[in-house]
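Q: Structure for this?
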Amino acid sequence: MTHELHDITLVVNGRSHPIRVEARRTLADAIREECGLTGTHLGCEHGVCGACTVLLDDQPVRACLMFAVQADGRAIRTVEGLAHGDTLSPLQKAFIEQHALQCGYCTPGFLMLGTAILEQNPDIGDEELIEILSSNLCRCTGYANILRAVRAAAAAMREEGVA
Amino acid sequence: MDGTTHGPDDARMAAGPGEAVGRAVTRLEDPPLVRGRGLFAADVNFPRQIHMRVVRAELAHGLLRSVDATAARALPGVVAVWTSADVAEIPSIPFRATKVQGLEPYCQPVLARDRVRYVGEPIAAVFAEDAYLAEDAADLVAVDIEPLPAVLDAAAPPAEFAPGLHTEPTIVRKGFGDVDAAFAMAHAVIELDLSVGRHSGVPLETRGAIARYDAARDLLELHGAAKKQHWNRDEIARLLGRPPSSVHLFEGHVGGGFGVRGELYPEDLLACAAALRLDRPVKWIEDRRENFLATNHSRQQRHRIRAAVDAEGRLLAIDDVFFHDQGAYVRTHGARVVDLAAGMLPGPYRLPAYRVAGHFRLTNKTPAATYRAPGRYETTFVRERLMDAIATRLAIDPIELRRRNLVATAEMPYPRPLDVLGSDVVLDSGDYAKLLDQALDRFGWKALRESIAARRASGECVGAGLAFFVEKSGLGPSDGVRITVDHTGTVELVSGAASVGQGVDTVLAQICAEALGVGYSGIRVVRGRTDRIEFGNGAHASRVTVMSGSATWQAAQAVRAMALETAAPLLQLSPEVLTIRDGIVQRKDGATEPSMTLAEIARQMGPNSPAMRGRTPGLTAEKWFWSDHMTYPYGVHCALVCIDRGTGAVKVERYLVANDIGRAINPMLVEGQIAGGFAQGLGGALYEEFRYDETGQPLSTTFADYLIPTATEMPALDVLIAEDAPSPLNPLGIKGAGEGGTNAVGAAIAAAVDDALGQPGAVTTLPILPGTVMRLLDRAAP
Amino acid sequence: MKPAGFAYHDPQTVAEAVALLGRLENARLLAGGQSLMPMLAMRVAFPDHLIDLNRVEGLDGITVEQGVLRIGAMTRQRSIERSAAIREACPLMTEALTHVGHLQTRNRGTIGGSLCHLDPSAELVTVAAALDATIEVAGPEGQRDVAIADFPLGFMTPALAPEEMVVAIRIPLWPREHGYSFMEFARRHGDYAIVSAAALLVLDSAGRIARASVTLGGVGAAPLRVTTAETALVGEAPTPALFRAAAACCEGIEAMEDPQAPAWYRQRLAAVLTRRALERAWARATGEAA
């Protein structure tokens, strides 16, 4: 009974993935293994590091702290969905230009968190921005360049919006 | 969080001499990483793979009575369960060459045999169809351990390790000069007892090992490798009784190394042995709790140090006895951290006499090894605490005291009668006093003292401190690079180095671009693969830019010379008037005709070209850079801290790292290294510690208990990169930049906390915990 | 770190959920999952059945009526944090929420989940104690109310029968012009607090303290109302000296000890945070602070 399989559909970056999983399979594992989207990384599997951050109905959540069955039919966005073809999102570009990544392992989580911030509160103040970014761990950069990248992306988006 | 000096510099695609080295260009590594298209260990999958789960000891020390895997084996989907009997023929995991004798009996078996020696030690391995299932089965393995008392204090007298062996495998002794005479004639003797807490690299990606055996080619592959591919390949081959050419290691993306990842661990051998024996690809991904228990710890040392000084505060001698808590086994580094600590302790100071005894002690904790600035984070804390204590005792300004003792530029290269990592210590170049002045100026030290005084007058508890450090980098003896231009003009650079995420590809490409005269962004860099280059020394000890960078320089120069030599007769010009820009051989004087592309030259040099008859074809060169001595970067850290009197919490408000690295190939990446290194140093100074209870149970096994600094803990960091003292030991003058950001953080913050408390010498232990600070505040209260 | 197997149940109504609780052995409710999921992943919790409340109707919502704030158990922490009605009527809760985990966890975490997980340091439990909340509990026999003071039975153990579940929390509102403050000390932002303090003050027309609430989180198994401090405050004119004296009541309380902090340190933090919270609450009551 405990290994009963559930047929669900994960809608990731607009594409439906009909999958069959045990109830205990985390959303993060299902995205990675069943949907084959390995950009979402696992850094702790206990909800502290934020590497597995994805957007669930446009809200950032930790994919290791949900079961896949709970996300059945919900709109999920992952790092693979940020770029449009060859065109990187302003935040992806800013991460490269501001050297906001080194090993790149935490990067997808920060990109998804940053994307949500830019969508919901592009004029966010520094203090609140730092507070929100403190939810994710990075072991390489010391964070300053990540902050800088989010600000640079916000500025670029403002400019684009004006133009 | 502010204060960068370099932004990206991509307006020009670096394409030739003077245009690639020294520029803050963006990284070649980034595009796949920001798209989620990286290939980290967990992203590697093979058809028919099975998953390994390791059953680990839950007691710190005990006799292993029995391991019953019956129930686990019976679980549907379980392929095999191994205990030590199943891997009895695999020898213990070795350590790299060292002149320290007698370490072999202390090496770790792949699976525990008759004893367990730390919580987390591998006891059994479960192989199953699915990672969830493997964990289910691992829970069913019944382990019977008879507890023994745990040894937890490395400074306590040694205990028994095994019959006839005690827990001190060796004492590393170094020294020079007449220490006893110096102490006898000293104006003053200053003595301290200082401790550094157990913490470690803790990369955000846990370890992983994916092994598969290709019977068709009789080839064993290990994916998820890092850092030391070639040494690991050779050892895996030896331990499994195979020729090295039948084993290949592959490095994909690596989610941070910091010294701990890429060493040869039990799990690597288990995965390889299982892939051979079970005839299925085997995937092992460490979970975070395992990472805290099973991946190398570091840093824990206690020093009892004495200094003899004259009346002006000049060092006459240092005498240090320290205890290094190695944890349960000797791992691949052997006694390297002790050796580094003993050899690097004197730092930047003139020292007539020195004696050190490093007690290498085993305890019942996770085995330890190197972590970014190994042996230096610890001894910079110790040495700089000592300098501050001398200054206090003699009532000399601590900065002036340091000035009096710094090795002068005129004394460079400055040989110390010491060796470290088997090479003689010769401080190769430096202007220590100049960098100290620059750092004080940049931090605004004078104005800062005034503002601190004003803030104290209004009741705040603030203080500033600084520390000087000397790093080491560019460990030899050799590294090789092969550069090939193919018939499309694409440049491939194959290196024996590795990358742990620091930007190696970009840096090597920049050096290649500069020397060869091509754009850096099109260069394909291959590293971390044993199947592409026969030898390599990997990525550690801040050696890649120095060693592989120098080899790249030489190989690219050689390819350039070949290209010019081939092109000159075809263009009917002398090679001397030619140069290469953007991959086109053309006249130096700027005339665009005649010209020839590298692609055309490569085709001329192909194996079917009549011109190549009797010669080795290809526009390609492999060069090896050799070095007998390390090169020594140096720097100054300055910290401003504010203490909350109510909670004892220390907040670092401002911080400066000034670091002379000889030459910055990419200043943006250097700053990134320093900033990230600083964050790790900050962790060790204030937050991170692997704690154990009195029975040896680890208390820091989640990210909620092991406190890595987050964005809120980061102060405003300023980075001053100096290039005043290029290394004379390599063609580009490079010194490593990987560890200077970490090295002196504990030392500088300790000094600043002392200053804030108005209690010189108050801080004796890292990390500095709020409760400890509160006790110190109580001590000062009237 | 993969959860052990369990049977998954997905009820649509409270009645169904309660029926499942009554019928199933070793079942646990899954609310936001932000505390339970790590326990499952680390295999320190082994339920045979998980009953997911995320699709249960009617458990979500915030209402302010007749001086009472009612929050449905499955209301996300983020919704509470962003609720204008709560910011206006019960700003202590808004302030406390900024300390609860992080944006991602608040997007999933629920108030009911926090209450039932009952971590000694949980901000929302401390706030509930400070505000004399009432917990609405549904069971096979219908609904009952549990006063927050009676809700914790012991360390991380709520006063719920196996077949019962929390459906809402009711909070009697303080007068509009009350002063409030929530303060905590954690090693890093977003971590569980070592100690937290909640203070509420109402001043009378003469400027004396008419009503006071002082609550500590993280010192014992459950939030602690420091009634000695409250008694010391009421009827007095607020001064720094008075707040120091009231805070001193916290130094003698029994505090727990764990790897994060020894008992003496928690006692010291309790006093310091209480004093600071009272000063801030006073400044807010007089309109001198936002």
